[in-house]
TrEMBL record:
UniProt-recorded name of the protein: Chaperone protein HtpG
Source organism: Limibacillus halophilus
Lineage: Bacteria, Pseudomonadati, Pseudomonadota, Alphaproteobacteria, Rhodospirillales
Quaternary structure annotation from Swiss-Prot or TrEMBL: Homodimer.
Cited function: Molecular chaperone. Has ATPase activity.
Pfam families xref list: HATPase_c_3 (PF13589), HSP90 (PF00183)
Broad class of the protein's primary localization: cytoplasm
Every Histidine kinase/HSP90-like ATPase domain range: 26-186
Keyword entries, A-Z: ATP-binding, Chaperone, Cytoplasm, Nucleotide-binding, Stress response
Gene field: htpG
Length: 631
């Protein structure tokens, strides 16, 4: 087969521009990334050999070798892992397919605004650490032979626009060799002592031996301890080793927010080393909701994509779980229905929630930062995991109308006003928008705290939960707002004044109902409005307005439900309209009030974030009203 010339995927070209521009403040991490990829290749060969033992029969033990060549100005990193064929080379080294190009491009644009530091996180999060090679090399050659294949392949690129792939007879017997032709200013990475220091700093935890083949010496020298970090006593592991193990397993560049290292022995024996990131992974809200904790059996890698290992709402976890009680040749189908894995799932979930509860109690400020990052995911468990619902509710934190910080439901209950018999909440697209909602005015007047919920998941879990700490959850945008039983600061004469309605109000109400009968379900006086003239609410038992809007946006719902228009009897506009209806029964008056009725409805729609059914008519009515007011 002749040499094949291919172009990089557009996203790869953009990434390489950033990498080649030396935006990394710490270039030496290229070696960590290549070693990490080599280790993964060895893990995958171990797994493949469980069902195809011939893949490793008679071969040398799995290992990684680093070979600096000062004369050639090149650095080689070799492994005898699973290897790659033609299609693997094109897919893995020419495209970014693992996490989706759309998300990658969005992240790349954000990275450009962060002086390049975001690019470091992107490379790790998308598992494309191979491209960090071009920070130090102006040409990269990859020679690989996939285990079990007779033909080897050679991939080559200068990182500027494309790459070539051709058959190779000099490929390793099995595995991959990456040759970096170093830039003149990067020759420091040919120094054996420099390489040794990098490996010990970043890759000592790698379970595969890493050998350094020094010039002039016949036998290579092992640089790392090559023992599974999770099997070692905690007292022997430094914070730096934990951090680098997290970087390796998560392909991440941030520091972990929290770690859990445990060993369980008894009827069920397993070990785990789990991390909670400090930064959200790029695919955190991907529809597939994949978890990325690696499953090992007796220190042999099995899979990093097993939905039975942990619940989806803990998918932000990174790390490994190593079980002694599963067969090495377990199939994916068996994993989904394994009682052993089910017990591990329950036990590990409890352990994670225990750790979060302790953190929330002892370090509330740090826990708030965790909730800011991952709270929207953890709340998915409120409707998925009934067994742990109470614990998750205790862990949940919310924004509310009382201050700008996070608060717990227990704290909200402790602040409830006398006579309050429910938790009140409002859902929407952002906390800032919700704070301005007219539906909150009556609650604010009585100093009643309302939870501000801006995560899409909030629409679903509140319905599933229904009641918290013995009190119902009640939306302020649904049904009538009966605040009369809640103690407030109003004086008696002010309360009487509020209950009074202007002359002609009942007639105006009847007129609005007749005029808007085809557009709304009802028109009624509002107890929740203080300074706004109107608002829209859902009838008791109807779907919440924000939920309906979300479902329509995602093509899950076609119809638009009729809502209730509430009007503020004490608002100047409503008072003037009521007086107009009471004093003037001419046709001109009726037409003017009718136009005002539609303007008020459109105003309520705008306040609710709804689109107007006829923007042109709204603009005309508004212009006419302004003209009459200025006349």
């Amino acid at each position: 087969m002749s040499e094949e010339k291919l172009a990089f995927q557009a996203e790869v070209s953009r990434l390489l521009e950033i990498v080649a521009g030396a935006l990394y403040s710490n270039k030496e991490i290229f070696l960590r990334e290549l070693i990490s990829n080599a280790s993964d290749a060895c893990d995958r060969l171990r797994y493949a050999a469980l069902t195809q033992p011939e893949l490793t029969a008679g071969s040398d033990p799995l290992a990684i070798e680093i070979h600096p060549d000062s004369a050639a100005g090149s650095l080689k990193i070799s492994d005898n892992g699973i290897g790659m064929n033609h299609d693997d080379l094109v897919a893995n080294l020419g495209t970014i397919a693992r996490s989706g190009t759309a998300a990658f491009m969005a992240g790349l644009e954000q990275a450009k605004k962060e002086n390049g530091q975001g690019a470091v996180n992107l490379i790790g999060q998308f598992g494309v650490g191979f491209y960090s090679s071009f920070m130090v090399a102006d040409r990269v050659v990859v020679e690989s032979r996939k285990a079990g294949d007779a033909q080897g392949w050679r991939w080559e690129s200068d990182g500027k626009g494309g790459f070539t792939v051709a058959e190779s007879d000099v490929s390793p017997e099995r595995g991959t060799t990456i040759t970096l032709h170093l830039k003149d200013e990067e020759k420091e990475y040919l120094d054996p002592l420099r390489l040794e220091r990098i490996v010990r700093a970043y890759s000592d935890h790698i379970a595969v031996p890493i050998h350094l083949r020094e010039p002039g010496k016949e036998e290579p020298r092992q640089l790392n301890s090559a023992s599974a970090l999770w099997t070692r006593p905690k007292s022997e592991i430094t914070d730096d080793q934990y951090r680098e193990f997290y970087h390796h397993t998560a392909h991440a560049f941030d520091d972990p927010w929290m770690k859990l290292h445990f060993q369980v022995e008894g009827l069920l024996s397993y070990a785990g080393l789990l991390f909670i990131p400090s930064q959200p992974p790029m695919d955190l809200f991907h529809p597939e909701r994949r978890q990325h904790v690696k499953l090992y059996v007796k220190r042999v890698f099995i899979t990093d994509d097993n939905e039975a290992l942990l619940p989806p709402y803990l998918r932000f976890l990174r790390g490994i779980i190593d079980c002694e009680d599963l067969p090495l040749n377990i199939s994916r189908e068996m994993l989904q229905h394994s009682p052993v894995l089910s017990k591990i799932r329950g036990s590990v979930t409890k352990r994670v929630l225990d750790a979060l509860e302790e953190k929330a109690e002892k370090e509330p400020d740090s826990y708030s930062s965790f909730w800011e990052t991952f709270g929207g995911v953890l709340k998915e468990g409120l409707y998925e995991d009934h067994a742990n619902r109470e614990r998750l509710l205790n862990l949940a934190r919310f924004r509310s109308t009382q201050g700008d910080g996070w608060t717990s439901l227990a704290e909200v209950k402790a602040r409830m006003k006398e006579g309050q018999k429910a938790f009140y909440f409002i859902t929407g697209d952002s906390v800032e928008t919700l704070r301005q909602s007219p539906q909150l005015e009556g609650f604010a007047a009585k100093d009643v705290e309302v939870l501000l919920m801006a995560d899409p998941v909030d629409e679903f879990w509140v319905t599933a939960v229904g009641e918290v700490l013995g009190l119902p959850l009640k939306s302020v945008t649904r049904g009538g707002a009966d605040l009369s039983g809640i103690a407030g600061e109003e004086k008696e004469n002010e309360a009487d004044e509020k209950s009074a309605t202007p002359e002609g109000f009942d007639a105006l109400l009847a007129f609005l109902k007749l005029t808007l009968k085809d557009a709304v379900k009802d028109v009624r006086a509002s107890e929740r409005l203080e300074s706004s003239a109107v608002c829209l609410v859902a009838d008791e038992g109807d779907m919440d307005m924000h939920l309906e809007r979300l479902l329509r946006q995602h093509k899950q719902l076609d119809q638009v439900s009729k809502r209730i228009l509430e009007i503020n009897a004490k608002h100047p506009v409503i008072e003037r309209l009521a007086a107009r209806v009471a004093s003037d029964s001419g046709e001109g008056a009726g037409a003017a009030v009718e136009e005002a009725a539609w303007l008020l409805l459109d105003q309520a729609r705008i306040l609710e974030g709804e689109s107007l059914p006829d923007p042109a008519k709204f603009a005309r009515r508004l212009s006419d009203a302004l003209a009459r007011g200025l006349a």
